[in-house]
Design a protein that fits this description.
membrane, transport, 80% helix, Snf7_fam, 236 residues, coiled coil, endosome, elongated
């Protein structure tokens, strides 16, 4: 009995029969064995067809009977080869369908395992407790935001004082400083000796020195005034 006959007649193992049918792995292995066997059969038939063609060419019209017999055998081999091609196509389709079914079965099995694991994880979870927890988290986030806002706001120190009164006092201080600066400025005394009709270089330099000194005092007062304004702006 050939391998293909044993396959279609249920020539499986005793273990497979005891389980009520072969496993997908066993069936796939049998289908691959059958494909391999038919492929070898194809190669054999193709070789015989080439041989019969060579015989027919060899005899030709010299020995028509032998040539015709070779062509008849070639036709039978070609018919068998065509049948094997169809059988291989059917087996290939069946094998692919079985592989897909086995894959789907494994996928569903693993998805079932995952569903059971998720169910086990969620067994100890109470939705009410989760809602309470999320509410507590939200409340604490609000409290944290309020604290951050309170810390980031500028402290209003010194707001109990009247700003107008402080500005008036500051203006008085500036006026006092200005008056004091004016008192400190001393004009150069008039020389007792008579000036020459044409002053020399020494007199011109002395005059420039006095003018620069007066300008320096005026600039210093302006800088002091700027500093007092900056101090008042910072205090407000």
């Amino acid at each position: 009995m050939s391998k293909i006959s044993r396959f279609f007649k249920g020539g499986g193992s005793a273990a497979s029969k005891g389980r009520g049918g072969p496993s997908p792995q066993e069936a796939l292995a049998r289908l691959r064995e059958t494909e391999e066997m038919l492929s070898k059969k194809q190669e054999y038939l193709e070789t015989r067809i080439e041989r019969e063609l060579a015989i027919a060419r060899q005899h030709g019209t010299k020995n028509k009977r032998a040539a015709l017999q070779a062509l008849k055998r070639k036709k039978r081999y070609e018919k068998q080869l065509s049948q094997i091609d169809g059988t291989l196509s059917t087996i290939e389709f069946q094998r692919e369908a079985l592989e897909n079914s086995h894959t789907n079965t494994e996928v569903l099995k693993n998805m079932g395992y995952a569903a059971q694991a998720m169910k086990k994880v969620h067994e100890n979870m109470d939705l009410n407790k989760i809602d309470d927890l999320m509410q507590d988290i939200t409340e604490q986030q609000d409290v944290a935001q309020e604290i951050s806002d309170a810390i980031s706001n500028r402290a209003a120190f010194g707001d109990e004082f009247d700003e107008d009164e402080l500005m008036a006092e500051l203006e008085e201080l500036e006026q006092e400083e200005l008056n004091k600066g004016m008192r400190d400025v001393r004009l150069p005394s008039v020389p007792s000796t008579s000036l020459p009709s044409r002053p020399g270089k020494l007199l011109a330099c002395h005059f420039m020195f006095l003018m620069l000194k007066a300008c320096s005092s005026t600039r210093k007062r302006a800088e002091d005034e700027d500093e007092m304004k900056k101090l008042a702006a910072w205090a407000s």
